[in-house]
Structures are given as C-alpha cells and as structure tokens.
Fold each of these.
Amino acid sequence: MSEKPIRKKIRLTDYNYSRNGFYFITICSSEHKPILGHIEEGKMILNEYAEKVDSLLMEMADKKQNIILDKYVFMPNHIHMILVIENQCNDVVDESGIIEFIQEFKSKTANIYIKGVKEGLYEPFNERLWQRSYYDNVIRNKDTYDLIWSYIDNNPLKWTMDKYYYDNSDS
C-alpha cells in the first residue's frame, strides 16, 4: 500500500484564525482549471458560473456579522480576497473564522458547479473542484495591506506573469 504524501502545513502553527485581523486568501481551482472565466485585454471576464460564485461570496459575507469582504478579484483559475475578522469584543471570539468561511464557500460553490455539470452547463471535473486547501497570509501592517490591495487590483493586467497562468488560446 502506498503512503500518502506528507502535506506541507500552510497555516501558522497555534494561530487562531477567528482572531480580529486582516487576511489575504487565495483559493485555487483543482488542477488550475479555468472554471471562472478568462482574461481579455487585461480584464477578467466572468463566466456564468463565476457570476453565481460572485453572488454567493457577497451573500455569505453579508450574512457573517464578524467577517468583512474587503477586496477581491476573480482570476480564471483562482480567487484572491482580503477578509477582515471583526469580533465585537476580543474576549468573545466567534468561532466561525476564516477556515469555516472558506470551507463553507468551497462547499457551496462546488454544489453549484456539480448541479451545472448534471444539467450539461459545465465541464466535469476530477474528484474535487477546488484545491484541497487554500493559501493565506495574515496581514500585519498597513504597508503589507497596501501591497496586497495593489496586487489584487493589478492581477488581471499581469495575468501572463501569474504563477497560475495558462494559455487559453488552445481552449
């Protein structure tokens, strides 16, 4: 029997991700498939699925009293966002922090996609729609916040230099 590969831990050890603060999150599609649309002349063009994902993201953020969707951008095969946790009191921490928010988001958006596959609207996928985990960065100061804000704004313009870039001219 083959052993599963040891996964690299990408979360900060012993960090409470339901703490007040700013978080830079990146969620990638499995196999970096372009499930969200395409870049055209430096602008992200959302497909029908991405429009549904966008609505769901806004709806989820509106319902969470302690999570603010500060900034985000859809790319063909990933999403960047800045989420802000604002609990009313630092002594009373709402346990539904970033991890739970992302898990719920990925689950709900996968269900939307699966329904679309069954209706013949979207291409089938292998095993999972989203990568198993996600990338996060705790934003610790204004300079970092400003850099990330700018990165999100300019990401579509710099698509061909993005590490998740693919050439969609073959699609």
Amino acid sequence: MFALVASLLLTPSFAEDSEFAGTEAPVIEEVAEDKEPETKLSAEFGTAFATGNAIFYTVAGSITASHEWDRNKLGAIGGINLGAAKADADGDGLLSQAERDADYARNVQRYFAEGRYDRFLSDKDSIYVLAGAFQDPFAGYDLRSHEQVGYSRRLIKNDTSELVTELGFDYAQENYTDEAVAGGSEPYQDVFAARILLGGSHTFNDSVSVSNTFEYYQNVVDFNDVRILNTAALTTTLSGKLSLKLSHSLIFDNVPVEGFVSLDQTTMATLVASIL
C-alpha cells in the first residue's frame, strides 16, 4: 500500500540566480548539448513471511528508470507493497484449525506509478512536469491521481553530495473506497495544492550513502489541509550491482479520508539491483 499523506507525502523545490551588469543580458549557464545520453535502470525487492503459530507474508518491490540527453530527462517509477495474514478472528490469541484453513486476509495493498519530464534551462535549473497515481484502500483511496508542473534547482551537485529544491503546483483527483464513503466521506474530491520539496543525498565512501526527501503540500482552497511526505534511506553496497537499502517513509495528512488516521509510516529493507 502506498503510504501516507502528504507527509513525506508532499515535498518542495525552488530557486535560481542571474547576474546583471547595468542593462547587460543575464549570464546563463549553458547545458552541454554534446554530452553522452545516460540511461539508468534499477529494481528493488523485499519480502517477509511466516508459518506456524503466526501465518503472514509481505512483498514490496519497485522499478526505477531514467534517460537523460542534451537538455532533457525522462524518469519513471512503479511499485507495489502487499501483505496478508491468517486472521485470529475470535481474538483468543491463537489460530484455530478453522482460522488456519480460512483464506488470507489482505492487510496491506498499495500500488503506485509516476512519470516525470525535466527540461533543463542550465546545469542547475529545470522546468518539470509529472503525473502519477496510487491505490491504497487501507488509507481510504480507491485511486488517487495527480498532475504537477514546477521549477527545480540543484543547490549542490558534486561527486559526494547533492541538494535539490523544487516549487510546484499540484492538481489531484481523489476517488475514495466504499468503506470511506460509508464512513461519511464524499466519493470524490479535487485537490489543488502548492508543493515545496527539499531533497538531498550524501555518499560517505564507496559502500555507504544516505538520502532524504521532504515534501510539503498546502491546499490552496482549504488552508487547513496540509500533507507532508518524507522518505529517508541508508544504502550499503554489497557488490558492483547489488545494494542493501533500509528506508523509512512517512505520510501525514492533517485532513485524512473520513474514518482513517492522519499518519502512515513504512519501514523496509530491500535489495537493490542496478541493472543499467
């Protein structure tokens, strides 16, 4: 299931600089038009399962791809987070034979996908558009899709560190589950929000790196509606193509879907394969 509302859920970005000498034209950093195209592709997978006194499983995975050429960059990500268990229906603290024979009860179900295009104005600045969607019935969403346009600036970019900020405008379409509607929610809502993002990463050595991305969404129609998303990760290289990643994602929505809680948190350990 996807995780939480605009808590780590929503994050920011902005900035830019130009210099003027009297009435002279501003100095613009040029993007190298002849640099080699670069393609990246990686996949993540993690799982846990148990049998015996407790019976359950979880599966999480994602695929990330990007292609950069001249002044352009295309990126996409898609993934799943699923879990189910044999439920202790009578609450007596153990699984009876009848409960063991029953079907698995789904307790996690999140599907997500997003695509993005950046047009670079300089080595540090770009205009971007993106679109994405997720389904998370355990957060009340039958489908939440959104489209966004904004400005991105690389504040720091070197061999070991990167810091990026973004400022954008987001339009989301929220379709709620039957359970949410039964709890008092409207079946559908449009959300118009300003978005700010701050994201960074740092490589300590050839084996260890950390990253964090913080997003803040402010509903511009209902100022009481705020969404925050934050994702932090620690990655350790196991081999040239394989890494182990420990990540934590947080989604906070102070106006959650009716009948659901404001905060979702997910902690995962996954293997990451760098295919390209």
Amino acid sequence: MSSASDLKDDAKKDGNAAIQISGVSHRYGKGRGEVTALGPVDLSIDPGSFLVLVGASGCGKSTLLRLLAGFESPSEGQVQISGTPPMPGVTAGVVFQQPRLFPWRTVGGNIDLALKYAKVPRERRNDRRDQLLSRVGLEGTADRKIWEISGGQQQRVAIARALAAETPLFLLDEPFAALDALTRERLQEDVRQVSAESGRTTVFVTHSADEAAFLGSRIVVLTRRPGQVALDLPVDLPRTGVDADELRRSPEYTAIRTEVGRAVKAAAA
C-alpha cells in the first residue's frame, strides 16, 4: 500500500489535486420534504494542505466531509481523491465529534483493531501501535482501559486510530467541540504537528474562527444552507518551528481570525 507521502509526491508529479470537488450539490429527503444541504461547490485542494471548513450549524460542513470520506455520494457533481472516487475506510482516516472507541478494548486494543483492518502485518502491529501512541503523546497507555483515561486522551486515541491506515486523507469533524478550552488548545497543537509530520492532506470542520486561523493552511467559509463558498482564504503562517502561544499572539494570526470571523457572521446572515 502506498504511504501518504508517496501519494502526495505522485499527485505533485502528475499535476493532480489531492481533492477535486466539481459542481457538487447534495440533497436529503424527497418530494416536498427535500432539502438541499450543500452546493454547488467547486474546490481544488493541493496535496499536503490543511483545509479548514468553517460556518454556522447546518451550512453543510459535515455533509461535505462525509462526501470526501465516501460515506455518501453527491446528488450532483463529482468528488475525486487523487483522481479516483472516495471509498469508505480506504480514502480517509476520520475523527468524529465523539471518540467512538470500543470501551471493552484497551487503548492499545483499539489501535490494534484499526491496524488489523488496515492490513498491517501482525508482526509489525506492536511497533506501529507504539509509534502512533507516541505521536499523539500517549506513550505507555496501551494497557489502560478506555474509561480510565480522560476525554482529551480518548480523543487522542481516536486520532491515533485514524492515522493507523496510510490513507491519503485525514478528516476531522469538530473533534474538540466537547472539550474544555485548555484541552482543546493542546489538541489543536497536536493535530497541527501530526498533520505536518504525516504529510497527509487534512480537512477539519469547525465553528471557530480561532481554531480555523490556528490550524489552517487554507480556510473556506461556507454560507448558510445550502452551503456555498463565501470565503476561500490561503493562510501564510508557519506550520512548524514556532511556539503556539507566540503564534496566537501574532498580528498576522489576529488579522486572519478577524477576517474569518467577519466572513462567518456575514455568511450566516
């Protein structure tokens, strides 16, 4: 199986986008009850980008994420990942709002199951599991029960599990919404670093202009339903080698956060 870095390099060589969204709209229901949740949307995302989707509730952010994961197919238009339609469990590792871990398995057991489904050879799973737990700051927790660790740690396990398979995409649907502010900031820093280290193309859904400004290399604000692109903003902030608190205090960060916040309010009006 190709690694994320291989897929990124191939996409660059071929001149292909990692994600191509062409004329995509999506509807739910039928007849008089039909609702258009999204679209039309056109986006082309470069390999290795960290795209943040921002907007009010019901604007289609999570719908677009499900289309990228292959959980649903668009009503109109086309979604392609590195030139092919998305396939559930193959295209992307996904982190949801809740960790959705198996409580009867240990921390390591949850990772082991993901590695099994990813067809990682049995003899490599222990090392790979330890690498993943180390990457999210959970060294030495493999034997802990899920109920023995905090909510923030459970979400770290969910992130490690999503990284178990070498998929080209890393998708996160408001993964920190239920966490306290301090834990949320710490996990934002972790995801930012993990994404940079893995080289995967990342799409992150949030309501927060602060979160978008800190995480994104590109920010897309969606209008209220049906969600369309209201702002498409490239972000030229350093991705690595900078202190997180220093970045949050910078005038560049403040300017981006302000622009995104205004766009979200205007798009929701």
